[in-house]
Amino acid sequence: MSLSAATDVILHAFDWPYTLVAQRAEQIAQAGYKTVLVSPPLKSLKYETGSQWWQRYQPQDYRVIDNQLGNTDDLKAMIAVLDEWGIGVYADVVFNHMANESSIRRDLQYPNQQDMKAYDNDKDYYEQQRLFGDLAQPLFDQNDFVEAFGISDWEDKWQVQNGRITGGPSDPGLPTLRVCDNVIAQQQSYLIALKQLGVKGFRIDAAKHMTLEHLQRVWTKEICHDVHIFGEIITSGGATKPEYELFLEPFLAHTRFGAYDFPLFQMIFDALDTKGSLKSLVDPYCFGQALSEKRAITFAITHDIPNNDVFADLVMDEASEWLAYSYILGRDGGVPLIYTDLDTSGITNERGEPRWLEAWKDSKLVAAIGFHNRLHGQPMKVIEASDDLLIFSRGSRGIVVINKSKRAQTVELELNGDWREVLLNKQYFSSKGRVEISVPSMSSMMLLKSE
Questions:
Q1: Segment 254-266, tens digit of pLDDT
Q2: Nearest 5 degrees, angle CA 129-CA 132-CA 137?
Q3: By the 8 A CB rule, do 276 and 244 touch?
Q4: Distance (Å, whole) CA 88 – CA 13
Q5: With pLDDT > 70 as the criterion, what percentage of the chain qualifies?
Q6: What's the pLDDT at 226?
Q7: How do 435-439 and 258-260 pair as beta strands?
Q8: What sign has the CA pseudo-torsion 255, 258, 260, 265?
Q9: Is 353 exposed, middle or buried (0-12, 13-18, 19+ CB in 10 A)?
Q10: Taking the complete model, does pTM exceed 0.90, yes or no?
Q11: Which tens digit of pLDDT belongs to each residue from 193-221?
């Protein structure tokens, strides 16, 4: 899949075991998803009683998939089942750092001596799970890491891309990999092995912490061929914001990768606030507040937002999150990423249920995905925009209405023919070239012209 052709909605099956993804393959396909992003397929800490989600982002070895979510056999089986349903697999990859194991040792050999002994004691199992390389030898040693120091100034580009991500002054942090021949070779071998298994795309975790040299050396033209790649670079907005200027703009200028559209997310978040205006969503790209449509990964929520205290203020209320999804699935451009989890955050919805547990198959969301899939590539034209109301067309066959006000609004549209509102499956009929609809408060509508 080339970057320009990467148009399908991605299900972020965050922290789902690989066997669960496989079990739900038919449902995922029927819901309209074309690709699934899975948590990092590598060796990371696991316990019989389970481990925390962030352990998946602390690699112990790339050459073996063996973690809390499954092993190489499980991943292969999952890819095969999803392929039968026409669904591609995206893998989350962690190349900036290795696991923080300072509590059990002082050296920087990966995997550690205990894990190396496990490889030797159970050779048949680990050989079965091996993706590449010689498990009798370490993957990395101290020569593959930069000097240890914690990041203290997050607007100092050199610190952010050379220092360790830590949990505070007393935390030694995650050992940062050095850009050297061995690191590059091992990471390339890992990507090639995953591609050979059938992986169709990659999400680069912590991309803002990686230098352009590192990114450009690892991701060769051959490795990038026929896959969709996007980076995670968290910013508080678009042009003029320090993180955008320091990290996201250079990433976009010097790679061909896509990226999370945090500038657009911030615009949506602000527009849906009581003091915001939906007029700001007419053409945010024009003002440097959205990425180009061919490189943007659009979203209403990412895994970091509900699961990290530092981003907790960015969790929208349910009604606003739905309007955000209506916008990103209703508009043209970008690859929408839909987040779901197994109640990682503990946040509940209005019914007291885990908020994102069943979100991926919500009937309204599935209908909106269908609208997106059907009208992909159709031009978007704004019909009306005010502080509280946004109406735009998608070609000649689609209309999106978003009402963020606290009261219902009556909208009269100049339309011919019969139309179906897909979210509630309601029919509308034109009379003398006009259709009148009532849009409830804090709600949206997606209309398709009947064929």
A1: 999 999 999 999 9
A2: 95
A3: no
A4: 13
A5: 98
A6: 94
A7: unpaired
A8: positive
A9: exposed
A10: yes
A11: 999 999 999 999 999 999 999 999 999 99
Q: Say how far residue 121 (Cα) sits from the centre of its chain.
A: 38
pLDDT in tens, 124-182: 999 999 999 999 999 999 999 999 999 999 999 999 999 999 988 888 999 999 999 99
Mean pLDDT for the stretch of residues 69-93: 98
Sequence-distant (6+) residues with CB within 8 A of 102 are 172
Return the pLDDT at 7. Answer: 57
**String of DSSP letters for 248-312:** IHHHHHH---EEE-HHHHHHHHHHHSTT--GGGGS-GGGGTSS--TTTEEE-S--THHHH-GGGG
Domains of the chain in sequence order? 3-377 (3.20.20.80), 381-449 (2.60.40.1180)
Copy the structure tokens of residue 354. Answer: 């885990």
CA dist., res. 391 & res. 384, Å (int): 5
Tokens 């219902």, located at residue: 408
- Counting every residue written for the chain, the total comes to 451
Q: How far apart are the first and last CA of the chain?
A: 31
Point out the residues that are catalytic.
Answer: 205, 232
Dist CA 312 CA 331 (whole Å): 26
